[in-house]
Sequence to fold (140 residues):
Amino acid sequence: MAVSREQILEAADQIAAEGQRPTLDAVRKITGGSYSTISPVLNEWKAQQKTNTTPIQEPAPDTINDRLAAVGAEVWATAMELSNSRLSAEREALEARRTEQEATQAEAIELADQLADEITELKASRDQYYNKATTAERAA
Fold:
């Protein structure tokens, strides 16, 4: 009697459930059948078992979580220190630029005041000149 594919797979599952390794001989003892019939099906079963293995997924132990938290805190502290030092440097540079800008603005205001004074003096000179010329024309 010929052994079916399902019988071979069931025998392999049974042997594995008993904690043993399914071999051609072990499956043959359960199902009968020839090695040439059992071999390809058993190889397929073994390949399927390799792909069916799921990785173990369990939460990390508290010691690892604690260490990760500590490392995370250290990384965060370092990042904050770097960003604060950069911010401080940027603030200093901004303050220096502001001081420089204020000095330039004060210089410009002083120059504008001087020019305004010169304009006032020139207008007064011009008016004085025209007043003399007008008075001289009237006298003549």
Q: What stands out?
A: The chain has a mean pLDDT of 90. The radius of gyration is 50 Å. The CA atoms of residues 5 and 40 lie 10 Å apart. Helices lie at 5-17, 24-31, 35-52, 62-139.
